[in-house]
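Record passed on here:
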Amino acid sequence: MKKTKTRVKKAKPGGKQRERVVRIFNCSEDVWPFIEAYGDKKLQAWEINENANLTDKDLFSMAEEFEFTFITPRPLDPLFVEYYKNLCMVRDLEILVTKKHSGKLCEDILDDKKIMDRLIGMKKKYKRLSITSYSTSPEFLYLVKTLRDKGVEVRTPAAPEESDAWTVNFYGSKSGIRQLTQINGAIRADLKMPDGVVSSGIIDTAGIAANKYIKEGGVVIKTNKGHSGAGVLIFRKGDLPKRFEECEKKIIEILRRDAYWEKFPIVIESLIKPNPRIGGGFPNSEFLIKKDGEVKFLYYCGMRVDSEGVFAGIEIGEETLPKRVASRITDIGYLIGEQYSQDGYRGYFDIDYIAGKNGEIFVNESNVRVTGGTHMYWTAVELAGRDFMKKSYVLCENMHTLPGKKGTTFKKLFERMKPILFSRKTKEGLVICSSNLLHDGYLSYIIFGKNKKRAETLEAEMKKLLEK
């Protein structure tokens, strides 16, 4: 099959190549103030380590690239790297591993003389570097500035300029997207969020939340910018005492377990019961704002979310959502994206929704960065074509718990999954997205099927093979 991705132009003899793509998966930097505020230091270290283990999954966000440099805090399994290169037809992949891992990857790069010498030295061969990252963090912007000060021409195609970087934390926060939604709700009546308020401090928050819980039989409490389900508390009927004083006391006790509840604004919302027939109850749409400000729609999907609000994965395909819902969340995404673009944001963002009863769709939050489905999108474009949503049904999980107490190796898993591994000929099958996570007992995967039923059949077959 002929490769569809853009090829790097060959340099003239003695001349420089146009650019070198560099990828930095700075996941922990996106929520560093939140991680830093963990009351439990062991949990903090675990969070940083887990984020580092997600690094090799991010290779699939680069599935459309022929040649690039990948900077990681964690060594990658050579067998997995070869699997990725062969699957996505990558001809030149350079992997640079920082000598230390603090959680702030861009700072670790700056402190690593060998890597910095390599990046600065690239200006001899390339006219410029095109650097992308998981998130536009202050550390990332400082790294870019340092390289430019060293005489390296750097392009950041998926990041705002430093003067507009406030948009990342503002619109990526629970309070920021709530403010934007309330303002624009006057323009579009179906642009709304669950009823709620923004509070600060544990005592005030507990009082407001207890009152809402007793009146409505449920409440959701969110820190301003959490991560992977942390910083979200969902209380349903029967979870808390019925009397106000006891309910308030219990909430205070729970909030005091982690320091971040005192450190950041808190959102208290009504509990919406999701309709599982509409994208699993949690529709989503993702966009990319280009450097010129154009808002580009990438895909809509249904999210896999557990009862505690923890994101697991997504499903993409025309069967995922009713057409009216797909159209509505796409239109709302464009409306919000235009505001982001006007304010200077550049890069990826998505909008999470909750599908309620009577056809209501509520904006839940916005991730203003690379998302949990970005790698799946680019893998689908590469393996199944740009019109994959019309021809395929694609599903993924980022951290599926493996059976048994022990993890496994990529080599063993690869051999076991051979019967259902993705085939470029049939455009169906399983893609293994991480080797690092296997050691901790998790499988990150993408499954392609010609329709939803076929994809679910392949997923069931995968689980049977895992049980063996």
Summary: The mean pLDDT is 93.
